[in-house]
Amino acid sequence: MFGKKKEEMMVYVVMGFLEAGKTSLIRDLIVDDMFDDKIKTLILACEEGEEEFEEADLKKGCAVCEYIEDEDSFNGKVIQKFLKKHRPDRIIIEYNGMWSAAKIPEFYDELEEICFDREVIMQTLDVVNDETFSLYMKNMPSLMVEQFKVAEMIIVNRCTVENTKKSAIRGSVKAVNPRAQIVYESEDDAFYDMKEEMPFDINADVIEVSEGDFGLWYIDMIDHQENYDGKTLSNYCFNTDTSTYTMALSRSGDGRSVALINYNSNGEVQNTINTEHKADSISVYKGTVAILDGNVVYGYNQKGDLLYSANSGTGSKKVVLASDYTAYILSVNQIRFIDLDSVSSNDTAETSKQE
For residues 305, 310, 315 and 317, what is the CA-based torsion angle, rounded to 10 degrees? Predict the structure, then answer.
């Protein structure tokens, strides 16, 4: 019948290297009360680790398990065969950590075609063993980064008070996926009582907060406003489209007249845009950079031309570009979405090209 809502097909992709804890996580999921809905779950195991799925656990979780032994077999045709065989209502994929995670978005497209009568909803999880985190980042950084890029949640297990470096983990993840949620797990209750070290210096006169760490700063600022009284906030943005960095630095020493300095991935200055404004917040979208000065957003292209100046509303704290001419504005108690189409002809900006 036309207009009938499709039933959902939940697909969980669990990534991570061997012995990271993927099998244990999946086993805990299928026997958890959250999954106690009596619907059939198909587990696609793409590697065999030390842990195996016990028949009793599969039965309790109304689950079946099929193994995919090589990367070439991880394709729509093979998956379709398993779907016809078991008719599941939910899929959990234990993805091989040595396979390219870049294939996962393509796999989602294949599933949508195969399950044309269902609404496919995919969630990607990356399981990391803190004991081997540094080793893998040193020896297989490209595979780690691929997993970070597509993961919605990073689960870091086997954490300890003595050895876990949250700032290093956060930096590695947020540099390539600012929106990823990081969850830490430990058998030591004292670990959860640890005060997380801020990835910025709250004692500096100018506190530099990166785009990926704004959420952490925002929560800490609300909980501990006394730490930020009289402080100047500065930040920079990483542009994932161009792999460049843009930093706002004051030329006057009082926070105003900021220069927007654009760096390439090697840390070399590409160009500088001189403005007469301060940068309470900065955001970059493709070739557009926007700064928030009080309650006004100023947008510039890479040549330094002013594109617009738009009123962002009272109490504005943060600008996040959604496109060249639209943005989300974060204030103390709300998030606003605005069109940045109010251009001021009175404002000018200078640009200096770095030779």
Answer: -30
